Amino acid sequence: MTDYVIETHNLSVYYGKHRGILNVNLQVEKGEVFGFLGPNGAGKTTTERVLLDIIRPTAGEARIFGKDCRKDGIAVRDRVGYLPGELSLYDNMRARQFFQMYYSLQKGNSDPTYWKKLAERLDLDTGRRMREYSRGNKQKVGIVAAFMNKPDLLILDEPTGGLDPLVQQTVMEMVREANKAGATVFFSSHILPEVQAVCDRVGIIRDGQLVATERVEDLVAQQLKRLRLTFAEMPSADAFAIDGVTEIERDDQSVLLEIRDNLNAVMATGVNHTIINIETETVTLEEIFLAYYGKGNGGNHV
Fold first, then answer.
1. What's the pLDDT tens digit per position in 60-105?
2. Which of 173, 193, 207, 209 has the most CB atoms in a 10 Å sphere around its CB?
3. Where are the domains of the chain?
4. pLDDT of 293 higher than 80
5. At the top level of CATH, which class does the domain 4-216 belong to?
6. Complete DSSP assignment for the chain
């Protein structure tokens, strides 16, 4: 039996007449890093807030560690580290005071100085008042708070937002290390290369509905292929006008094709013009994501 850390069933949220999320069914397995992808307004933050009982669902249910997120919210949150997308900090409090206070409210962390190690790693001056911080330093405060209790589950909403590239890399290293130590990680991000680098699986949410859940390598390998075919005799301009196939470019000897379906038809057409070389090109998670949202060539592929 699969051990799910996060599980939702037909989870829906409406803000009056406006849809937040609709019938979201998520299963996040123990020990995995799960990326939650979608543009602003797709429903990522709404889903995370329901999981933490910050808002209540209109319908459906959500469970973390097998516990109902509404009925057992306190017990659930004791084991979760959360970084919200919009941080609200105590402007007049120094960061070290905030961490000391936060530690006193948490359970299970036997190292009261762990936050110091995290702050040092992120190059965060904890002696300053938080109103003096830049956006990036405020983000660092949120990151330290999320990680400092060594939680069993990390829920991170755009964790690298506002950070410079070197600090972004450090945060991704922290995610890997926490996961290696046994934590499950659920995070949303707009930076798709970092999702591709650290995630085991991803879920793509569109207009409040979960439209795909795939392992990263399967999503890249199966959903979109790109081939460059070199010919002894170039085919006509409309030779690859095949459903599910888009011609990206051509020169005097080769054609670059993006293929979502009908690969056999592509190869049959190519053989008729004597293929002399086939090259595959890497397709990034960003390109897959854009294809799901209908922004790439070929329209909507959901």
1. 999 999 999 999 999 999 999 999 988 888 899 999 999 999 888 8
2. 209
3. 4-216, 225-282
4. no
5. alpha beta
6. ---EEEEEEEEEEEETTEEEEEEE--EEETT-EEEEE--TTSSHHHHHHHHTTSS--SEEEEEETTEETTTTHHHHHTTEEEE-SS----TTSBHHHHHHHHHHH--S---TTHHHHHHHHTT--TTSBGGG--HHHHHHHHHHHHHTT--SEEEEESTTTT--HHHHHHHHHHHHHHHHTT-EEEEE-S-HHHHHHH-SEEEEEETTEEEEEEEHHHHHHHH-EEEEEEESSPPPTTTT--TTEEEEEE-SSEEEEEESS-HHHHHHHHHTT-EEEEEE----HHHHHHHHTT-STT----
